Amino acid sequence: MLHSTVNSTNATINVGTELKPTNTSDTVMDVPEELFLFLCVFSLLENILVVIAIFRNHNLHSPMYYFICCLAASDMLVSSSNLGETLIIFMLKQGIIKSEPLLVKKMDYIFDTMICCSLVTSLSFLGAIAIDRYITIFYALRYHSIMTLRRVVIAIGVIWSVSLVCAAIFIVYHESRAVILCLIVFFLFMLALMVALYIHMFALARQHARSISALQKGKSRRITPHQARANMKGAITLTLLLGVFFLCWGPLFLHLTLFVSCPGHHICNSYFYYFNIYLLLVICNSVIDPLIYAFRSQELRKTLKEIVWCSW
């Protein structure tokens, strides 16, 4: 936490004001600020390129890519907040700027709000992409009437608004463990929802394969082989995004769970020691996501190449 550095030489970056037990605040593994800075800058540039590519290429103007664009913006929040906080902590330690507790505390709240907002929006937009893929696969003929531009814009607006409100509430009531518990429950709920959607989607993967086989034999079906492959490709892309998200954010949520359940236990305290590693994993999620977008989408990869080459 930024505010904790005013009274401590330990430059720990924290998520939320009270996520780390006070009896372990001085026994957290140090991670070089340079590593945080490098990952944050790299992630920020990657996600900016993704957002620009989606806006420039009209072939990417579809609900799924609108949600991916928002997911990239959410990753930018993580990178920006950690970048800003790391720079300020570095300047405080070097004496470049003077330590004014009130100002530092306000900036700390701003950075923590950005991270919390990013967490809620990331989960929400991953859920939105899962629902989009679900509709694409199971309601292919009605997809464009269901996923209209108006509904997508409303969904995006609602997600960002609710996420900002939730983040503000989380920061204002950071001393209440009930708030942290709500965050954990939301994480588990979104996990359960997306797993349920995935089980249903991939349960019919064989049926789609049979549909392709039937079409090749001349039988008429409601879905073309190209549509089936494209739909399942989108589902696989989302699988990768979800897997990376839960691998990168999971340790931090386990940290929160242990903080609520056993903050003073020696086993929990030993887990708290690696808190900065969990934050690095969160930033790594923002670094990996754009690579997944580019790897899975030939159209996006082509646009990114054009942007990079034109910039040179």
UniProtKB/TrEMBL annotation:
Subcellular location: Cell membrane
Main localisation: membrane
Transmembrane segments: 35-55, 64-89, 109-131, 152-172, 178-199, 235-259, 271-295
GO MF annotations, alphabetized: melanocyte-stimulating hormone receptor activity
G-protein coupled receptors family 1 profile domain residues: 46-293
GO cellular component: cytoplasm; plasma membrane
GO biological process, alphabetically ordered: adenylate cyclase-activating G protein-coupled receptor signaling pathway; melanin biosynthetic process; positive regulation of cAMP/PKA signal transduction; regulation of gene expression
Family note: Belongs to the G-protein coupled receptor 1 family.
Protein name stated in the entry: Melanocyte-stimulating hormone receptor
Membrane topology: Multi-pass membrane protein
